[in-house]
Amino acid sequence: MLIQEKLFLFFFLNRNSSGLVSADVRLTFSEQFHIRHTNYFYSFLSENERLGSMPIRVINDTIPGKPPRKINVTVGGSTVLHVSWLSERTQQMIENWGLRVIYKAADNITRSVIVNDNQSEVKISKLQPGTTYTIWTVRVTSKGFGLPSKARNITTPHQAPQDIIIHFRVLLINVSWEAQLGNKSSETSRNLSSVIENSVSN
What we know:
Elements: E1 7-15, E2 21-29, H1 39-47, E3 50-51, E4 54-55, E5 70-77, E6 80-86, E7 96-104, E8 111-116, E9 121-124, E10 132-141, E11 144-145, E12 152-155, H2 187-201
Antiparallel strand pairs: 1-2, 3-4, 5-6, 6-9, 7-8, 7-10, 10-11, 10-12
Organism: Pocillopora meandrina
Domain Fibronectin type-III: 67-159
Domain SEA: 160-202
């Protein structure tokens, strides 16, 4: 197995305060290490929460390239999505360079944006209204791309139709100008305004 050829395994057992057994495991990889070699360990630690047939709860770990666990996606408009996340700050021997936020729609064309490692949010714009997008993230490390996060699906709202404004100016042939028409609160002005409004709306 490729993984076995590239690591040395060392562990010891302890008794915790509740009388349960904790296993402290240390894996040392050879210099040919690639980030993909941690996929197996991340899978059983963080996703399956099992070590072989034994259920486990992770106390802490330094697995490199882990994606953020809490990803939040909100709608910022018919063409904009806001993506934010919480990252665990643990000491790593492999440098994290940034985070790649990946998204795709029904056309299956994958697009992405890469942000600095110290960022915790990004705005994705120029999207299509009324479209469902699948969004996930991966770490960008000095040893390659990290592990993918769980994907989130979100639909942008349909774009609201814009108001259509029609403007026209007409001459009221049978109406002569009176001084009271210049006063909008006068009875003459109100009566004429009412006639015009009813004529247009009906």
